[in-house]
Amino acid sequence: MSDIILRILEFIVVIAVVAVTRYVIPWFKSNIAINENEILIDIVNTAVMYAEQTLDTGAVKKKAVMDLVLNQLSKRGIVVTEDQVNALVEAAVFAMNKMKTSE
Description:
The protein is mostly helical. The protein has one domain. The chain is built from three helices and no strands. The chain has helices at residues 2-54, 58-76, 82-102. The longest helix is centred in the first third of the chain and has 53 residues, at 2-54. The protein is rod-shaped, with a radius of gyration of 23 Å.
């Protein structure tokens, strides 16, 4: 009788491992990626607004934004290339300028 219970428990554990591997881990990974993207965009937008309000020239603003964004991302363990950050910064500046002209 205990052999049957042991086999049933083994079967349940195998099913649980398969379910976790198949459904839970991919779901968790996709949600983490979405959260990292949201964090990345928020950091970039905040840094661009900060530079726009506090700094004078374009070159100084760009360097300050890039440094701030890369620093914040490294603190959070989010890995992106400098080119990716540059593209996001340019997009945020473009969107901010577009909002200014539409007002």
